[in-house]
Fold this protein.
Amino acid sequence: MPPPGALDNRARRLLIIGMLVLVGVSVYRLYYAPPPGPYVGFSGATMGTTWNVKVAGDDLGPGSLRKIGAAIDKALDDVVERMSTWESHSEISRFNASASLLPFKVSPPVLEVLSIAEEVSRESDGAFDITVGPLVEAWGFGKAEPASSPPSDATLAHIRSRVGYRGLRLDGEAGTIAKSNPRMEVDVSAIAKGYGVDRVAEALEGLGHRDYLVEVGGELRARGMKNNGQVWRVAIERPSDEIRTLHRVLALRDASMATSGDYRNYYESDGKRVSHTIDPRTGHPIDHTLASVSVVHPSATWADAWATALNVLGPQAGYALAIREGLAVHFILRSAPGGFEVLSTPPFAALLAATEALDPTVPDESQPSQE
Ligand code: ADP
Ligand code: MG
């Protein structure tokens, strides 16, 4: 039997050790331990749409979460400040406002986006064209209220004299762009969301994260997996005007996906659907049976530009170009009223098959908006 005083001492020692362990666990949980659940979600608004980011991994204490939030905001704000046509001081707005034909200095990010846009324009034979802004405006999808009637042929012919990507000259070495017509304008709306996704992914990589899903206005990029060991899954929506329903789920692993569709951003005129995507070769909004085009590509910037380009080209020419370029693309075509048909290129069909080989579960990210 130990003497009575010794037991007291041991109990006190145990109590102190117990308290130290408790304090240690609390400090660990507060500063280092990842929050429970498969990932941590962040969200906000940018470029007239919403963004959602999900991050998994074991370095997600409050300090890391604050850093992630700040890095996302910085990356997206930077894109808006340089490229938005709604910010009068952005580089692109200042270029648009200038009537000079002299070379105009732009920052490397702007040059990067314009170079990718130029290449997709060339490959799509002008279906993708970032000088199309004045036509977008004339059809009522710009800053001004839509006109009560469609623009006349004479108005369109007049506007088209200052539209055409070939009239925009890029000099990569000098870091400049130049107009060939004083009233030429640049509008990167069809590629900026994808670029924003890539910049956010880059910012997360810079903080050491390798498991994330980034989405801006429906354009996505995924890397790694969730804390439960599952790969990220994204949804392709069924193109329907009223309700949002699921069409296909895709497991996205170290890849981006962008979708271009006419089922969200349009208005009706004389019973006809007027899309916000313009065919630069006719000056008119696209008018074919294609309801949506989803492109999977390593880069969200390229995926976004390709999705719009293939949407302009339509099901036949778009499919032929996707095959020629070896792109992973899923087309949804309108058939009978309310009905749809689908068409996948072989690389996309392989992605669908790989998804089906995994356990079917609900997607992590749907496509919340198209603009
Ligand atoms: P979607 O997701 O439907 O492709 P985006 O937001 O990517 O739509 O692009 C549509 C926007 O791009 C339009 O609102 C317009 O500003 C611009 N745009 C329209 N037609 C073209 C085109 N042919 N090439 C490039 N940009 C276009
Ligand atoms: Mg696009």
